[in-house]
Amino acid sequence: MDSHELADESLLRAQELMQQLRFDEAIAGLTRCRRQQADERIERLLALCRYRAYLEQPPAAVIADPWSTPPADPFAGVAGVPEIPAARLDARTLAAGIRHHGALLVRGLLQPAEAERLAGGVRRALDACTAWHAGGEGAFEGTWYSRLPLQDDCELAQARPWVEGGGGVWLADSPRMLYELTELFGASGIARMVGEYFGEQPMLSVGKSTLRCVPGTIRQADWHQDGAFMGADIRSVNVWLALSHCGEDASGLELLPRRLSQVLPTGTHGAYFDWSVGQGMVAETAAGMATASPVFAPGDALLFDHFFLHRTGIPAAIAKDRYAIESWFFAPSAYPAGQVPLKL
């Protein structure tokens, strides 16, 4: 059996399993086939299968937060967001960083060469998105950009043009990059570690997991907490992954390095948008604490949840574009309504 016949057989088998609602088996079989050979059809069906798994079998379990009582803080006395090498990252250090300090900065989560490769993938996805818009729906078909077929009544779809207009593409709309990232999350242990933090197997967000290139021409950014969009009564982790040098001659992140336990008022205190946090509210919340703007190397990552107050950081010497991927994980028993999870 040649490679094309093997892919055909895998596709047919996966479709049968999906009809029987056996999504875990379908995902496993498609993944095994894709590891043996690159095939656009396999990648697109994998993306669809991860989405259909949520539609057909929404998570309903109620699982207690295993870190409702935060662990002892190994970073006590640390000024700003604590930093660790990738070798020290586990569920306990993640919980300590987020629950005591708001975030955890992980140096070298990826090797620089891997980060550079993914940055190239982000560029190809963005270019494919541009080609799709230029040619019109149906004129472009590819695995770097192939829109996830959301349901007609899905309110989340209204956010897609706003994301794409701001130099981003949903990870779920790039089957090739979705495959690459889910493989990375599995092989590196990131998905397992986030699952241990949640106490259950995580799901990945459609609406918040984004491939980005922030242009070097940006000159304004607004403070926000992602909980303002998603709600406070959820459990989340964002793996914000730098794929290029950030924070010196390219935009990075500016952040308030402290734990917040609530969503702040939005649209007040000089806020530009109704969803953003005004500078006056930031100053009031900081209570004299200085904001921070870390410098990121390719492969560094910042991990935080929906309460973390941050914005795009714009250094004085900005001149270059910044490549990054944000991957939002949710606990299935406490995922935000409307964000449309993908099964891992």
Please provide a written account of the structure.
This protein has 344 residues and is of the alpha+beta class. It has a single domain, classed as q2cbj1_9rhob like domain (Jelly Rolls), CATH 2.60.120. Helices cover 36% and strands 15% of the residues. The chain has helices at residues 3-19, 23-36, 40-56, 91-101, 112-135, 160-165, 175-188, 190-198, 227-230, 279-286, and strands spanning 83-85, 103-107, 168-170, 203-205, 210-214, 236-242, 252-255, 301-304, 310-313, 322-330, 341-343. The strands form two sheets. Strands 1, 2, 3, 4, 5, 6, 8, 10 and 11 form a nine-stranded mixed β-sheet that branches. A two-stranded antiparallel ribbon has the order 7-9. Helix 1 packs antiparallel against helix 2, helix 2 runs antiparallel to helix 3 and helix 4 (91-101) crosses helix 8 (190-198). The longest helix has 24 residues, at 112-135. It starts with a helix and ends with a strand.
